[in-house]
Amino acid sequence: MTVSSLAQNHPQDHSPARVVNSSNEWDPLEEVIVGRLSGGVFPTWQESMRATMPPESWRLFQEKGGRPFPQDLVDAADEELDGLARALEAEGVKVVRPAPADHAGEFATPHWRSRGGLYAAMPRDYLIVVGDTIIESPMSWRCRQFEGDAFRPLLKSYFDRGARWLQAPRPQLTDELFATGGHHDRWAVTEFEPVFDAADFMRFGRDIVVQRSHVTNAFGIRWLQRAVGSAYRVHTVEVNDPHAMHIDATLLPLAPGKLLVNPERYVHNKLFDGWEIRKAPQPALPRDWPMFFCSPWVSMNMLSLDERTVVVERQEEPMIELLTDWGFRCIPVDFRHVYTFGGSFHCVTVDVRRRGGAGQYLDVG
Ligand code: DAV
Description:
Residues 1-23 are annotated as: Disordered. One of its GO terms (molecular function) is glycine amidinotransferase activity. The structure is a single chain. The protein is an alpha/beta fold. 20% of the residues lie in helices and 19% in strands. The protein has helices at 3-9, 55-64, 71-90, 123-126, 152-160, 218-228, 317-325, 336-339; strands at 29-34, 94-96, 107-108, 113-114, 127-130, 133-136, 164-167, 201-204, 207-210, 233-236, 251-255, 258-261, 276-279, 303-306, 309-313, 329-333, 349-354. Delta-amino valeric acid (DAV) is lined by residues 199, 245-246, 248-249, 294-295, 297-298, 301, 342-343, 347. Delta-amino valeric acid is lined by residues 199, 245-246, 248-249, 294-295, 297-298, 301, 342-343, 347.
């Protein structure tokens, strides 16, 4: 590639080190956002949640929407989030956090109202970095409509320092979007308007893999493809997950050629021809652990610091064994109390900057 074609690719780039720069899940991590749980409230119920949330949570959300989570659980999870931040800093990674916020405020649009927001604990659900661009998602849970506010100071600061900053069209989230009441054959969202959660996408350099889910429709996937442009190619993959919401407890690339998969959900795909695929071990979490939002498979929801180093939950011993055997160095961090709120290390982070560019890693024929 000539110098002039590089310049055309990045006309806005005035300095060699871009403040936002990440195209995959494994290049050396330099800066990361770590979420925060304090001020979080139970989500306000909407019918489309039935498709993804554990049945024990349905009544809880219906009754407690907008009210604070139990303080002792919040404190325990926030302590673990602080512990993750310290572990990352000890590895030389710059950690930034959203400011503490109160998510209890009611809000309404001309079409619907929500008893409150949710939290700023899972920035991966909301933000995706593609190259030098950071994108805010059009999330389909009404209670999450203003979740991005907690991250605005960070986004403005990245913009000031040269990042490209996009927000997907604000979704209306009217009833037309939701295919509930037995009228949907597969997904809880229709094609009324573009919606997605950023966590349904997984980045492999110039190729981005996405799953359709109960929060991500084909319209949303088309929007993201056009927003990132032809330098990137978005591939929709099939997964075996009737409750699909977020791809990062289904497949996780840990290094070029090394893909960790959920043995219950992964469906063979020729995109990964030439990759070594290993199955995640059964999660080690006790069956009676409170899980408001997700399955115990967040055991495989991990964060890579580089091609050899993975942050892993301290008590997931079978996972630590598998990773060590596969040649990785494990950084064990306590995180079970965060699991309760719907995610682990990948969900609670956004890798803002990794050292490296957008290579080609997948077999796209
Ligand atoms: O396994 O319930 C969790 C993914 C969270 N981002 C699951 C999906």
